[in-house]
């Protein structure tokens, strides 16, 4: 399969599709493990969301897989604590609908509208705040805080082993191994934690082989809805970047056909669908795009099989039980790296687009996004309040619209 030739369904594609789920698996299950959602539900909604995406882009389906979005880890964790899972899912339904609205705006006004409303000077800092806000949670997990089953030194040792294993695979891995550093880090950390007696295998023994995932029905409340919608800005921009990446890999312009208007629509509906069942928001997975690049497996039918495999595994009760036994320091060690990488991606956005921070206008926008997003400030208007990443994004958009551009500065 040396070039993109459209959708062709066959047995060979099924074998490759199963392998691609292996590539996505580590990141896919990390989001529910960190936020208190059900990992089996996340598997189901990733698979079903990918199939919905393919249905919407059926005229020219990109070979991509949709699964749990890291951008929503902090908002989901806060939402579950503040309003409960059901109300948080209600907010995420509307976050997906925000994508849908963007897709219709693109349909009417064209793609340049998004770039004008969300330039790199906004997108970069917003992505950076996602990683920076999450970093204390990673440190707490790596240190085993609030856990009495093992010592802090044991927790940090296990976290360190998980972190080092992930880094080594990321830097030295070859072929498909280079695409699964998270999964390798989890496996090495899990084995290490076993020797420290951190794992209780009772849940695995007691779990049935077949079990319906713990689906949740959303409840719609104004506060979580208004909290979640602005946060969708960052993954929406990430979606555009991933569409560019898969277009470059396959030499097929998916921004033109099926077009950003349809891929954003598919991503948004997949996210809203996931939230309707209690799953995390979906996003396009760069790991799988990397696997497509390495294997030259451009047939989108492969992702159909990846999605079907995810749905089947969602009903394996013992898989969910195994995931529930992973000690927090294992996940925390890997998160130390991944949350830092998220912040670095935001920094790369500023650098790659040559955002001039000597320009007072740009400096003001970046500075205030950081302060409003990370500083813990809350703007309460009675009926609604804004805080965190969402508040930072809104401040950035408003400043970008209101601040005058200096005549001697062009572009960004």
TrEMBL record:
Keywords: Membrane, Transmembrane, Transmembrane helix, Transport
Compartments (UniProt record): Membrane
InterPro entries xref list: NCS2 (IPR006043), Xan_ur_permease (IPR006042)
GO CC annotations, alphabetized: plasma membrane
Chief site of localization: membrane
Transmembrane segments: 20-53, 60-78, 84-106, 118-143, 155-172, 179-205, 225-246, 302-324, 330-351, 363-379, 385-403
Cross-referenced Pfam families: Xan_ur_permease (PF00860)
Superkingdom assignment: Bacteria
Membrane topology, record value: Multi-pass membrane protein
The protein, known as: Uracil-xanthine permease
Species for this entry: Campylobacter californiensis
Phylogenetic placement of the source organism: Bacteria, Pseudomonadati, Campylobacterota, Epsilonproteobacteria, Campylobacterales
């Amino acid at each position: 399969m040396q070039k993109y030739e459209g959708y062709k369904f066959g047995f060979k594609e099924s074998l490759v599709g199963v392998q691609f789920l292996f590539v996505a698996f580590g990141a896919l299950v990390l989001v529910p493990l960190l936020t208190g959602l059900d990992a089996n539900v996340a598997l189901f909604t990733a698979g079903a969301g990918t199939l919905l995406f393919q249905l919407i882009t059926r005229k020219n389906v990109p070979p991509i897989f949709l699964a749990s979005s890291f951008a929503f880890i902090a908002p989901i964790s806060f939402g579950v604590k503040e309003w409960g899972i059901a109300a948080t899912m209600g907010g995420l339904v509307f976050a997906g609908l925000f994508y849908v609205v963007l897709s219709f705006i693109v349909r009417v006004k064209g793609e340049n509208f998004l770039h004008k409303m969300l330039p790199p000077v906004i997108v970069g800092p917003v992505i950076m705040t996602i990683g920076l806000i999450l970093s204390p949670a990673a440190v707490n997990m790596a240190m085993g805080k609030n856990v009495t089953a093992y010592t802090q030194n044991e927790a940090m040792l296990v976290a360190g082993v998980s972190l080092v294993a992930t880094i080594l695979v990321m830097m030295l891995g070859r072929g498909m191994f280079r695409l699964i550093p998270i999964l390798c880090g989890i496996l090495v950390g899990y084995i290490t934690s076993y020797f420290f007696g951190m794992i209780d295998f009772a849940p695995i023994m007691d779990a049935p082989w077949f079990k319906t995932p713990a689906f949740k029905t959303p409840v719609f409340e104004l506060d979580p809805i208004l909290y979640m919608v602005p946060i969708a800005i960052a993954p929406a921009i990430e979606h555009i970047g991933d569409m560019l990446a898969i277009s470059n890999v396959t030499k097929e312009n998916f921004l033109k056909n099926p077009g950003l208007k349809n891929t954003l629509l598919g991503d948004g509906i997949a996210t809203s669908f996931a939230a309707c069942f209690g799953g995390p928001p979906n996003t396009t997975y760069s790991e799988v795009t990397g696997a497509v690049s390495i294997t030259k497996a451009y047939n989108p039918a492969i992702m159909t099989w990846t999605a079907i495999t995810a749905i089947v595994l969602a009903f394996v009760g013992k898989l969910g039980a195994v995931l529930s036994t992973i000690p927090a320091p294992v996940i925390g060690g890997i998160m130390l790296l991944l949350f830092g990488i998220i912040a670095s991606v935001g920094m790369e956005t500023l650098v790659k687009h040559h955002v001039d921070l000597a320009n007072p206008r740009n400096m003001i926008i970046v500075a205030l996004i950081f302060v409003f997003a990370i500083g813990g400030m809350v703007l309460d208007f009675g009926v609604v309040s804004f805080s965190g990443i969402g508040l930072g994004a809104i401040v950035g958009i408003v400043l970008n619209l209101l601040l005058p551009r200096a005549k001697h500065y062009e572009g960004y």
